[in-house]
UniProtKB/TrEMBL annotation:
A Pfam match: Formyl_trans_N
Binding-site list for N(1)-(5-phospho-beta-D-ribosyl)glycinamide: G12, T13, N14
InterPro entries reported for this sequence: Formyl_transf_N (IPR002376), Formyl_transf_N_sf (IPR036477), GART (IPR004607)
Entry GO CC: cytosol
Protein family: Belongs to the GART family.
Molecular function as annotated in GO: phosphoribosylglycinamide formyltransferase activity
Keyword Hydrolase set for record: no
Protein name: Phosphoribosylglycinamide formyltransferase
Catalytic residues in the record: H104 (proton donor)
Organism from which the protein derives: Porphyromonas uenonis 60-3
Keyword terms of this UniProt record: Purine biosynthesis, Transferase
Residues bound to (6R)-10-formyltetrahydrofolate: R58, N102
SUPFAM superfamilies: Formyltransferase
Length: 195
């Protein structure tokens, strides 16, 4: 059984899509939704969905005690980032090796890195007149938007796309594919159990 913590910093639409999908997977449970933003909309979503929530300060993440709290108090075996804007510290990478997943609203590595999130990605795609955009689902390493790619889904950029229309279509891809990829990855028979 895999027990996940969903980390989010904003509204939480991806977190909600994950909860809805993963509650139907026998071998996965959602332990909590965690955020570094005490005003994040994801907190209201967590309450409405009946999922425990945890608000923390970003500096706490680097403390080994934070990873221990996730593992011991909440029995977390994997972390799924869903619009979480912070860099994951080494202490969490060590505590959850190859068990921290992220989704990015663009194709990596070209449209990623520090400061490249949300509408900033779509603005750049449109500024560069790209014909294709998409999402990238990947494992986390110690850098922004790096790590092994698990899935990439592309879509055509329309000539009349705006940041808003492109963002809306990217969100639909995220809500459709991220939960499926998370479930598939965490239920793989060759995934090393968390010690």
């Amino acid at each position: 059984m895999e027990t996940i913590a969903i980390f989010a910093s904003g509204n939480g639409t991806n977190a909600e899509a994950l909860v809805h999908y993963l509650t139907n997977i026998d071998d996965i449970s959602v332990a909590l939704i965690a955020t570094d933003n005490p005003h994040a909309g994801v907190l209201q979503r967590a309450e409405r969905l009946g999922v425990r929530s945890l608000v923390f300060q970003r500096k706490e993440m680097a403390n080994v005690a934070f990873a221990e709290q996730l593992r011991e108090q909440y029995q977390v075996t994997a972390i799924v980032l869903a619009g979480f804007l912070g860099l994951v510290p080494e202490s969490l990478l060590r505590a959850f090796p190859r068990r921290i997943l992220n989704i990015h609203p663009g194709l990596l590595p070209d449209y990623g890195g520090k400061g490249m999130y949300g509408d900033r990605v779509h603005e750049r795609v449109l500024e560069e007149h790209c014909k294709v955009s998409g999402i990238t689902i990947h494992l986390i390493d110690g850098e922004y938007d790096r790590g092994s790619t698990l899935c990439e889904v592309r879509l055509a950029v329309h000539p009349d796309d705006t940041v808003d229309t492109l963002a809306e279509r990217i969100h639909r891809l995220e809500h459709t594919y991220y939960p499926i990829v998370v479930a598939d990855y965490l239920t793989r028979p060759d995934l090393t159990p968390l010690a």
